[in-house]
Design a protein that fits this description.
- With 314 residues, the protein is of the alpha/beta class.
- Helices cover 46% and strands 19% of the residues.
- The strands form 3 sheets. Strands 4-3-2-5-6-9 form a 6-stranded mixed β-sheet, with helices on both faces.
- A hairpin with a 3-residue loop joins strand 3 and strand 4.
- Helix 4 packs antiparallel against helix 5, helix 4 runs parallel beside helix 9 and helix 6 runs parallel beside helix 7.
- The mean pLDDT is 82.
- Keywords: Cell membrane, Membrane, Transmembrane, Transmembrane helix.
- It comes from Microlunatus ginsengisoli.
- Pfam families: BatA, VWA_2.
- This is VWA domain-containing protein.
């Protein structure tokens, strides 16, 4: 927008003052006639409200046309041309809990695959399996069918190293192929972390999340499962509640968002929300034509009001 052009709006209050002055002067002149019956014959009485409305519409037209002249802009969501998404799936033993049918891990795989299918074809996708041992199953690739195969291959393991999972995801992002047209311009990256448990091994998740924030890589955390989840390990039943606080802290430190999902249906909705966040970016767009259209509409209405003042109604 060109703010200097908006200085033309100074004329609006001057026009309003001139209109009020002219109206008061007209009223004073009308009071000179003691017998107004002859005046009504010579000069037909005009509708006051139609006259005021026509003036208001004219002023609105001037305001919106001046705004259009200033070339206003607005912020809109536009699809990203390319990006890299790293999907980190918790494969610890707690993901065997059956509070989400058929179990947390299988349901997570199903929702993650659907998420990958709905991502744009130009998006590089990587998969990280996270337990006590963390590994990049697939580096960033455009072959989304390969990603689906990798997700299906994830198996349960011992322990949960969330901090290591985040660090590994950051390394995966660095492996994303460069855009030939812009080799020095890295594609936007994001991490989608699905976990149900508390960190039990490796480095601090908070420290890893802070590093992601410094690199401007948001982490979208999904706290998956219910508070009543349990697993049977070595003949003992152990509760495996979701650590919502940790997931929220990781998201906050990285500049991402946190979500909760206690069922496959909820998880699918969460992935749709994340897809909208990752798939779009903010951009400025000029909206001059919109304001010009408003100005034209007000001008037409003002013209109709002026015509109605000159018409003799029965």
């Amino acid at each position: 927008m060109d703010p200097g052009r908006l200085l033309l709006l100074i004329a609006i209050p001057l026009l309003i003052a001139a209109y009020i002055f002219a109206t008061l002067r007209k009223n004073r002149r009308g009071m000179r006639f003691t017998n107004t019956s002859m005046l009504d014959v010579v000069v037909p009485k005009q509708s006051q409200w139609r006259r005021h409305l026509a003036v208001v519409l004219s002023l609105l037209s001037l305001i919106t046309l001046t705004a259009a002249f200033a070339r206003p802009k607005t912020t809109v969501d536009v699809p990203r041309e390319r990006a890299t998404v790293v999907v980190v799936i918790d494969a610890s033993q707690s993901m065997a809990a059956v509070d989400v049918a058929p179990n947390r891990l299988d349901a997570a795989k199903q929702a993650a695959i659907q998420f990958v299918r709905e991502l744009p074809e130009k998006y590089n996708v990587s998969v990280v399996s996270m337990a006590g041992n963390v590994s990049i199953l697939v580096p960033p690739t455009l072959q989304h069918n390969t990603v689906e195969t990798a997700i299906n291959s994830i198996k349960l393991q011992d322990s949960t190293a969330i901090g290591e999972g985040i660090s590994t995801a950051l390394r995966a992002l660095q492996q994303a192929p460069k855009d030939p047209a812009h080799p020095n311009d890295p594609a936007p990256g994001a991490i989608v972390l699905l976990s149900d448990g508390t960190n039990t091994a490796g480095r601090s998740p908070q420290q890893a999340a802070a590093e992601a924030g410094k690199e401007k890589v948001p982490i979208y955390t999904i706290a998956y499962g219910s508070e009543n989840g349990f697993v049977d390990l070595d003949g003992k039943r152990q509760l495996v509640p979701v650590d919502h606080a940790l997931m929220a802290e990781i998201a906050k430190l990285s500049g991402g968002q946190t979500f909760d999902a206690a069922s496959l249906t909820e998880l699918s909705k969460v992935y749709k929300n994340i897809g909208s966040e990752v798939g779009y970016e903010k951009a400025e767009r000029e909206v001059t034509s919109r304001f010009a259209g408003y100005g034209l509409a007000f001008a037409v209405l003002a013209a109709l009001g002026a015509i109605s003042l000159g018409a003799r109604w029965p």
